[in-house]
Amino acid sequence: MSQPVPGKSSWPELVGVLATLAATAIAHDRPDVSVEVLPPGSPIIPDHNPTRVRVFIDNNAIVTQTPVIG
């Protein structure tokens, strides 16, 4: 099993992946951040949070944007 990646801040490899798998991968790489999965049309507060990763998905629960910390 791979080790967490403490400095990792983005996950471009997760675009096109199911949300549950993406959230699990992010939590494994960075157990110190919370993961928010956001379906289309979700209200977004435009703030920066260094302990959060937002995962934007489509109606099929597929990741549509590169998840990043913030």
Automatic annotation (TrEMBL):
<keyword id="KW-0722">Serine protease inhibitor</keyword>
<comment type="similarity">
    <text>Belongs to the protease inhibitor I13 (potato type I serine protease inhibitor) family.</text>
</comment>
<keyword id="KW-0646">Protease inhibitor</keyword>
<dbReference type="GO" id="GO:0004867">
    <property type="term" value="F:serine-type endopeptidase inhibitor activity"/>
</dbReference>
<dbReference type="InterPro" id="IPR036354">
    <property type="entry name" value="Prot_inh_pot1_sf"/>
</dbReference>
<dbReference type="Pfam" id="PF00280">
    <property type="entry name" value="potato_inhibit"/>
</dbReference>
<protein>
    <recommendedName>
        <fullName>Subtilisin inhibitor 1</fullName>
    </recommendedName>
</protein>
<dbReference type="InterPro" id="IPR000864">
    <property type="entry name" value="Prot_inh_pot1"/>
</dbReference>
